[in-house]
Structures are given as structure tokens and as C-alpha cells.
Write a structure and sequence with these properties.
Helix content is 35%, strand content 25%. It is α/β, with parallel strands linked by helices and 331 residues long. It has two domains: 2-115, NAD(P)-binding Rossmann-like Domain (Rossmann fold, 3-Layer(aba) Sandwich), CATH 3.40.50; 128-281 and 311-327, Dihydrodipicolinate Reductase, domain 2, CATH 3.30.360.10. Residues 139-245 form the GFO/IDH/MocA-like oxidoreductase domain.
């Protein structure tokens, strides 16, 4: 895989901290804005990219790049991904996939019609501990309640309260707690139980954006509550409760660390199948494997999963009145 990257923020730093452990990925080109040129030059030198640019067109026209990783603010995901796909590049798109389901469906259409890979970079779907949870569901009996809580006080919230609105809290940039933190909860639940039959969102809204909120996902036989908060914090707790036992995950669902299986018969087991690697390592290994094997089927199956998640967040926001500029032509 010959990789181009657009963006130079924190998530790009995370990727570059381990990417050398995946020799199948060749770093070719990093691109960003003129304002970030000094930072781009430093990244280019330190991580041995072949070149850098301050023009996205240069990256799109780079014939040595076959895959572009898009690590930009949420509201830019759709346009940058669409341009990449139209330039016949495979795309790795940071979560959340797009601002709304209409944009996601268009990217899906372009990718599949051109037989291109399109992956949403969502860590939890590829973690060994997540696969382990799937295998343990049968031990819990009939599922009754699912609870996910990802509450993390954001340093950017202090700036937000002072009137300095950064992208994470900017509704014009498709920010907010649902898109940033609760999206991990949605991916977690949808990956285990599929599409819910109904969705309700009860947000705390300040300056048009949800700084925290409670999402209810209704399933045929159980209820699920997903809490995402950037304006307050609490001990993290995620529980899948069945009539035969409970699975407790006391870590963020972005990486799903050590978890505890608690059965009604008194059985208690601490489980951790994750490797001692960066939380993003497994997803990029999976992308490389699909790429090398021309496994479009698995890629498009994961893309269908992303469609459901994007539909859930779109319905939830719109019902609650959290509207982005990207929504306006669709509602």
C-alpha cells in the first residue's frame, strides 16, 4: 500500500508513531495547508516521506500514491474523500465517516462503482478484545440491557466556554459529543447487535452543539443507552447485561482494554486478548490485508456497517435538533 496522508493533526501523529511496524505500508506523500507547511516539512523529514505538499491537488495527482488517509475535521471528510475516489485513489477516512448519511451513501456509491477500497478508520471494530466480546455474548444468555458511557472532560471545553470555539465544539464543522465520543459507542453496539429499530437522542446543547448527551437505541428484545460527554467526566463503564451474566468493560470503547466476565453461577474471569500495540495498529493491519488480498467483499461489508452507524447518528441528531450546515440541503 502506497500511502498519502492529508492532515497533520494529533491523529496523524498517532498513526506515525507505529506505522513503521507495518512494512507493507509505504509512506509516499503528506499534504496539508500552507499554514502548516513547517510542520509538514518536519513530518516529511522525520518519517521519511518521499515528498510533502501544501496542495491537495498535488497529492491527488501523485501517481505513486494508491491510498489516501484523510485525517481532517469532520466537515471536510466528504469532499476530500469524494475527490480522492474520483481520482481513483483508495480511501481511509477517519471517524466519523461523514457529517450525515446522504454524504456517506454517495461515497459508498462512488467507491463500489469504481471498485475502490473505502474504509472508515474506527479502532474498536478490529480489536482482538472486540472479537472476544462477540464470542462471549452467548454466555450472557438473553440480552436485557446494554450501557455504554464515554465521558471525558475536554480541555477544549474551557476554551469553548470562553468563546473560543474549536472544531470539536463547532457545529459548522460537524463537531459535538455524539460525533467525537459517542460514535465509538454506536460502532460498538451496532457491530454486536446490528441496526436498532429506533433511535432517540437527548443532548445538552450549548451554542448549537451537543456538549454531552444520552442516546437510546431500541432493539427488539432489549434497550441500550449510550452516553457521550465532553463537558463532564465520570468513571468509564460499559456493560452488556444478560439473564445469565454480565460483561463489564471499564475502559473507553476506542480501545477496549481488560474486561470482566461475571456470570450468575459465580464465575468471574478477567479477559484481555489485545496485543501490546497502539490502538490503531489492528485496523491498519486489517486494511493492508484486505488491500493485498483484493478483498473488496470484506471492505464493503465493513462499509455497510459504517452506513448503519452514520444513519444512526444522523437520525439521532436531527430528531434532537442538532443540525449541521451539511444537513441543510437534505432536510
Amino acid at each position: 500500500m502506497k500511502l498519502g496522508i492529508v492532515g497533520s493533526g494529533m491523529i496523524v501523529g498517532d498513526l506515525l508513531s507505529f506505522i513503521e511496524q507495518i512494512p507493507e505500508i509505504e509512506l509516499v506523500h503528506i499534504s496539508g495547508t500552507k499554514r502548516s507547511e513547517e510542520k509538514l516539512r518536519t513530518i516529511y523529514q522525520e518519517h521519511h516521506f518521499q515528498r510533502y505538499s501544501t496542495s491537495y491537488d498535488e497529492l491527488l495527482n501523485d501517481e505513486q500514491v494508491d491510498t489516501i488517509y484523510i485525517a481532517l475535521p469532520n466537515h471536510l471528510h466528504y469532499t476530500y474523500a469524494l475527490q480522492a475516489l474520483e481520482a481513483q485513489k483508495n480511501v481511509i477516512l477517519e471517524k466519523p465517516m461523514t457529517s450525515n448519511i446522504e454524504e456517506a451513501k454517495e461515497l459508498q456509491r462512488v467507491a463500489t462503482s469504481n471498485r475502490l477500497f473505502l474504509w472508515e478508520a474506527i479502532t474498536n471494530q478490529y480489536l482482538p478484545n472486540y472479537y472476544k466480546i462477540k464470542s462471549l455474548l452467548k454466555d450472557l444468555g438473553k440480552i436485557k440491557v446494554v450501557e455504554c458511557n464515554y465521558s471525558q472532560y475536554s480541555s477544549r471545553y474551557n476554551a469553548f466556554k470562553e468563546g473560543n470555539i474549536l472544531p470539536a465544539f463547532d457545529y459548522t464543522k460537524s463537531g459535538g459529543a455524539l460525533m467525537d465520543l459517542n460514535i465509538y459507542n454506536i460502532h460498538f453496539v451496532v457491530g454486536l447487535f446490528g441496526k436498532p429499530k429506533d433511535v432517540h437522542y437527548y443532548p445538552n446543547i450549548e451554542n448549537h452543539i451537543d456538549t454531552s448527551g444520552i442516546l437510546i437505541l431500541e432493539y427488539e428484545t432489549f434497550q441500550c443507552v449510550c452516553i457521550g460527554a465532553k463537558d463532564c467526566k465520570a468513571p468509564l463503564s460499559n456493560n452488556i447485561q444478560g439473564d445469565q451474566g454480565c460483561l463489564h468493560v471499564p475502559t473507553p470503547l476506542s480501545y477496549i482494554g481488560s474486561m470482566e466476565l461475571l456470570l450468575n453461577d459465580g464465575t468471574k474471569e478477567i479477559i484481555n486478548d489485545n496485543k501490546d500495540v497502539h490502538r490503531m495498529y489492528e485496523e491498519f493491519m486489517a486494511f493492508v490485508k484486505m488491500y493485498q488480498n483484493n478483498d473488496y467483499q470484506q471492505c464493503y461489508e465493513m462499509l455497510e456497517h459504517s452506513m448503519i452507524v452514520t444513519e444512526v447518528q444522523t437520525i439521532a441528531r436531527r430528531k434532537a435538533g442538532v443540525i449541521f450546515p451539511a444537513d441543510e440541503k437534505h432536510i
